[in-house]
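pasting for ref
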Amino acid sequence: MFKDTISREQLIQYVQHIEQTDFEKVALQVFQYQAIHNPIYQSYIQYLNVDIPTVQSIKDIPFLPIDLFKRFEIKTGEWSAEAIFGSSGTTGSVRSNHHIRSTDLYLKIAQKGFEQQYGALENFCILALLPSYLERQDSSLVAMVNHFIQESGHPHNGFYLDNLDALKNKLVQLKQQNQPCLLIGVSFALLDFAEQFPMDLSNIIVMETGGMKGRRKEMTRATLHAVFKKCFQVNNVHSEYGMTELLSQGYSKGNGIFKPIQTMKILIRELNDPFSYQKNGKKGGVNIIDLANLDSCAFIETEDIGKVYDDESFEILGRIDHSAIRGCNLMVSDL
């Protein structure tokens, strides 16, 4: 039996102070730790007949199909959850659940990642238009944005549900004051707001989180952003890429090109061979290393299609049509 030589406390320190130059080293240490202490992940590794000591590169690491978050408690170690984040899902669908050992660790990493790309939260007024998330009690996005609001401390920060008139008035006031502002919203709600209250937001960061959540017809990111650019008179529309099963985020400052925060790395697998990887710039299935998932699973095989580029930036191009896929996803039913 392979034995680990590193503790959770050591890994937390490594993850919180991760540098790009030592990402692979830390990722391999997290893999070894989770391969021993995460029973679901361990079973999956054994099912694939992978010998832990032979994993010497991040591309040797098995990535856990994201669908397993719908069926199991994905936990590394034995502990009681401080929170359980749930996916939004659609009517009648099975929701994913992410058991969280430390919300503090999640929020610290999320804040550090945002501030590395956008600057200190205290510089921003934050307005959040997240109705579909606010209607639930288990949204990781609401937890993150609420933390950002608390850290910002601006007196005009706030969440908005369906009070779009109040949001419009607040934005007009902040623009007149030349106050740096982040307007973050779920796509369908921002679209409703843009159509009802077209206005000049040229000095405000408009950031969409993606998804119509069954409220409106889905559209491509390019089409959606074209509407926002026209209605809000902005040159670029920002985006946040995240999901219930991840504790790290990617951010785009325009054109749908995302940069991952420091605890996150994107790899692109071949669609019909989940153990082979595409060259940079080629389309394929998105695998994510999320070192913030230290207490669940840091190696996630998502159902997204994307590309990654030489500078570590990435694009998300859509969802996988599972009827055309063979390989790892078909193994899940046997676990």
